[in-house]
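haha ok so turns out i had the wrong file open the whole time. this is the CORRECT one, sorry everyone. sequence first:
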Amino acid sequence: MAAWELSQVFDPWDPAFVADPYPAYAELRARGRVLPYEPTGQWLVPHHADVSALLRDRRLGRTYRHRFTDEDFGRTPPDPAHEPFHVLNDHGMLDLEPPDHTRIRRLVSKAFTPRTVERLRPYVHELADGLAADLVAAGGGDLLTDVAEPLPVAVIAQMLGIPEADRHRLRPWSADICGMYELNPSEETAAKAVRASAEFSDYLRDLIAARRAAPGEDLISGLVAAHDEGDRLTEQEVVSTAALLLNAGHEATVNATVNGWWALFRNPGELAALRADPSLIPSAVEELLRYDTPLQLFERWVLDDIEIGGTTIPRGAEVAMLFGSANHDPEVFTDPGRLDLTRADNPHISFSAGIHYCIGAPLARIELAASMAALLERAPRLAPVAEPERKPNFVIRGLKELKVTTG
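then structure:
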């Protein structure tokens, strides 16, 4: 496929494409296993088998700086004006490779053991029930701001020990920082991310100082103790890890919630079946994560030459793995364009795979299930007021709002 033809099919800046990218994905899969995309200088990977394999392939990495300089790798160093964002982002485990990634993830994993996460279940359900009850008492509202956002923000902030009075600041900071994960972000987007990164970092440093003086049972206190006792974490790693957990700990869950309910509203037969049989909630959560994937694309650097379908991708290149396309691959999912809440075999990759598999996936599943159960029980006549407008973002897929009535 010529570059101009590919750009006609795959255009992540086109609102029509962002509204429904799945037909374009089908065409990409039909065209090949790996496709060069000139506007971003990346190789697009649309098939489930390839995406799944590459996520586990150690010849690729989220960074290359553990092995190469920018010059060695043929890359331009980041703009110095963007330094606050890159310092915050590049010291978090999502953008690190072993051994630093291994060291940090092993420590953080202690907070996300099945036992620890399970202990949060009553708290999550109580929060979800209260939010659903408030929505019903008001006769409806915006499902995004009234339910989808407050629940995961409160849970991850509780785990990390963020005071309640400060929690309203987390979502705006996160939104501005996550703008940099879109393809070819504008300078305005970068400026917002830089400002948010600096403010968030300053806030976390103050909180770390407070926890160092008076430790608690929260995760930040645990990270501080590990840093102070054995110098296993630098202060910047504590800051970046806390920021990553706060951002990743709610961003995907918020979008999965509203994407999921909008999918249910557009598939009334499936919604009716779910209302009739709430035991479908666990499989419904998995299917909704697959059906309208909250993270559509994930990038990796090619550290050593790889071959995909007879095409050699050279060291120094960047691959863009299309999670949304992989989750609609008919080679893996029967009738992938159909929402099927009873789908039993559902190996979606919405939580990634390999060493960067989402550490908070078990908690996200509890939050999504609790929110769904509370709304099904408290608001059995929940319905949309109008068709929502999508955010212009492609990589992080969500809605600007989802106005509903509780009947």
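The mean pLDDT is 93.
again sry for the mixup
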